Amino acid sequence: MTKKAPSFEQAIDQLEELIEQIESGEIGLEDALKRYEDGTKLIQRCRSILDSAEKKIGELTADGEAEGDSDAE
């Protein structure tokens, strides 16, 4: 069974939780390193979602500009 990738909001929530755990100093070094690794994966997930959103906005903006240009003629 594959694990479903978190949404942007879920990834941010998980990342904030990991940061709190690491900063608390109440976990050991090995656990802190594991959480750090998990955090970097969450950051990559967030960046991927943001990159996709930016690309989609660019496409929509370009489509809107192209439609607007043809209406002006």
From TrEMBL:
SUPFAM superfamilies: XseB-like
Listed InterPro entries: Exonuc_VII_S, Exonuc_VII_ssu_sf
GO biological process, one term: DNA catabolic process
GO cellular component, one term: cytosol
EC number: 3.1.11.6
Principal EC category: hydrolase
Any coiled-coil regions, as ranges: 15-63
Pfam entry (one): Exonuc_VII_S
Key words, A-Z: Coiled coil, Cytoplasm, Exonuclease, Hydrolase, Nuclease
Record GO terms (molecular function): exodeoxyribonuclease VII activity
Subcellular locations according to the entry: Cytoplasm
Similarity comment text for this entry: Belongs to the XseB family.
Role played: Bidirectionally degrades single-stranded DNA into large acid-insoluble oligonucleotides, which are then degraded further into small acid-soluble oligonucleotides.
NCBIfam families membership: PRK00977.1-4, xseB
Summary of subunit composition and partner proteins: Heterooligomer composed of large and small subunits.
Listed name of the protein: Exodeoxyribonuclease 7 small subunit
Organism classification: Bacteria, Pseudomonadati, Planctomycetota, Phycisphaerae, Phycisphaerales
